[in-house]
């Protein structure tokens, strides 16, 4: 099992980050989706987690019409759906993301995130024995780190190292975009950004031709 830890410092409080994250994911998913390809929202509803308490459960399907990369020889026609299920809590609470890929049944990723008001210098931020020991910690710089031009259109292979590079690029572009759009969401409350999220969910699913509202 390969464990990677990415730390991203943002010029925001954790409360501001939560709003910006929800806004950015919703808007970016809508922009990058088109008929038959993109991010379909299956569920997005309040959920009571037995450990973390109240939060939001989300299930999404990422549809790719063509997959390219070392892990799928020569690529091929799609669609290739990947299902992501996750739970998100309030400020400072960890999120879980568990994708399942229909074309790579033995390939899985688990992602946890946590937000804290510091400079990324927490020791063992997840308070977990699972990530102690030999694992790489990478600091991502939203201002200066480079991102491949079409990072989201390719699968860099089924090997863990290739997948971790894709995740790194997605995290970097997402956080950079959140700050670039700060003027659009900085005055929004959590309730307002949730309403925007619902609006974008409906519009994106319609754009994809999804049966889910």
TrEMBL record:
It holds the Pfam family IP_trans. GO terms for cellular component: cytoplasm. It comes from Aptenodytes forsteri (Emperor penguin). GO terms for molecular function: phosphatidylinositol binding; phosphatidylinositol transfer activity. This is Cytoplasmic phosphatidylinositol transfer protein 1. Residues 1-65, 100-154, 165-201 form the Phosphatidylinositol transfer protein N-terminal domain.
């Amino acid at each position: 099992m390969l464990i990677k830890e990415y730390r991203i410092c943002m010029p925001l409080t954790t409360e501001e980050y939560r709003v910006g994250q929800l806004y950015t994911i919703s808007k970016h998913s809508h922009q990058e989706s088109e008929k038959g390809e993109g991010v379909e929202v299956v569920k997005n509803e309040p959920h009571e987690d037995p450990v973390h308490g109240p939060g939001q459960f989300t299930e999404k399907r990422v549809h790719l019409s063509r997959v390219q990369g070392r892990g799928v020889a020569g690529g091929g026609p799609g669609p290739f759906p990947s299902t992501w299920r996750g739970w998100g809590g309030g400020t400072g609470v960890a999120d879980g993301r568990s994708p399942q890929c229909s074309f790579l049944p033995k390939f899985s990723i688990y992602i946890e995130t946590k937000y804290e008001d510091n400079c990324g210098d927490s020791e063992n931020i997840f308070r977990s024995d699972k990530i102690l020991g030999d694992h790489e910690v990478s600091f991502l710089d939203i201002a200066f780190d480079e991102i491949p031009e079409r990072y989201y259109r390719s699968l860099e292979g089924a090997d863990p190292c290739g997948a971790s590079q894709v995740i790194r690029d997605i995290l970097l572009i997402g956080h950079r975009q959140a700050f670039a759009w700060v003027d659009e969401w900085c005055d929004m409350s959590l309730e307002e950004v949730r309403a925007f999220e619902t609006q974008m969910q409906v519009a994106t699913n319609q754009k994809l031709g999804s049966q889910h509202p």
